[in-house]
Here is the input.
Amino acid sequence: MARNVSCIQELPVEVIQKIFTYLDIQSLENVGQVSQEFKEIIDSSIQIWRHLIKSYCHSQSLLKRNLNYTSYVQSKTCAKSLRKFYQDLVNVQKNFETGKCKKTIIDCQEASLKGRKVEKNPEWSRNHNFKGVYDMTLNEGRICASVYDTIQVWNTKESRLSYMFTNKILDQDNTQTICFTLEKNYLMCGTDNGYLKIIEIGTEKIISKARVNSNCLSDVKCRDDLIITLDWYGNLTFWKLDANLQLYQIQLKNAESYSVPFILRQRDTERLMDANHDHLITTYKSHITVYSFGQEAGLVVSFPVYSDVFCIHLNEDLVAFGCKGSPRHEDAPFIHPVAGIANLKFRPPRVNYIRTPDNDPVISIHLTSSHVILGDINGELHVISIEELKWNEVERITDLGSEPHHLLYTLKSHAYRDFIWALKFDGFRLFSGDETGKIIVHDFLNVEAVKSVEESANNDKDKEVDFTAIGDKEIEDENQSKKPKLDQEPELDNIEATNE
Here is the structure.
């Protein structure tokens, strides 16, 4: 053995480092105990630790896609920092499943950039709808959020405001922006009179606009280089940008099969849409319509759920949705669920419905391959494991009140009764935006000595941990600084939908 070690030690350091990149962390620790020279090579090798980090993220698409939008970028030139990052990285999943996170508040309502800020309107306090952070997208390490009359783009790594688009910029062509998405350097906006317009975020100029009719656009999404718009009658239009960055309409194969079912063609501005490589999902009140981009191109199925759908999120063959539901009453003959997950592999789709302990309407949602996160009108975030969901029935209801093993924990980061309109999760951080104009960042990577939800409960500490506002402003404990609002309970029929 000693002779074999001696032979390896005679190799150039670069070769030894390359050999060590084929080892996992436990093997590296064992090798480090063989000789001081090996230990020093491992401790000082940037190559080894970068390889370990990338290998760990490779099998997890969310981590792989968002790795460069974390502190990894600052650690890339220091072996010691990379080793610390790797140690934090392997704990992310455990931290997420126990609710152990560092929390930071981004106050979008008070933010300003280049003299621009949110112009407050006294009308905003009269209802919950369209209030605060009402919609949000996540693209290449940037959060793009509608905040009252502005659209703001925040750098997720530094929680720094990069761009702020006011009404004057968004509606410079006298068309009102209704929906939006961010793709690379372009803000794509749907308008009240049917226009899809492309704004270059650096120059803030409209570089292209087009429409097929004057129907108000309810939603806009990007799928690779394809831009999809949905109008308030449920009609879908497909667009692309040419080499000169001009919009042109395209016709997909079997284009007529992407038409909306006749029974769902009534006007509704709150239609939602989501799309991935295989599926396209739209909603109309309590109906979910599924289209396919595969061999069965076009309309696949449209199915009803128990109540009006407020939010959707598509992940591979699963689509999660939040809805109105019904409150828990002892004498209620049936309690309508407030969320569900439909498996599109089956015809018709098989649905697992979810009832939460309080069963408050779910207005924001995010779905991963193993978890679903629900944001409700009571300021609560429910993190639920879906790994044990069964798909052997057409319809199944999971009651988190009686089957708590599915509910990992509930985060009460937001104030009591604040509507959580928007949710995004990048594998490292959970971003939740509410009606007060704040986005709370739950960081599961850089937690240090923060306690998990379970640990805090065991110590009878129902407090928020490590809350730091942008600009280093201290945030008081929510139980001290936030009191329940005394205004009347909102009329649930008037809750508007938001697309996640």
Remarks:
- Residues 46-58 form the longest helix (13 residues).
- The longest strand covers residues 133-139.
- The mean pLDDT is 87.
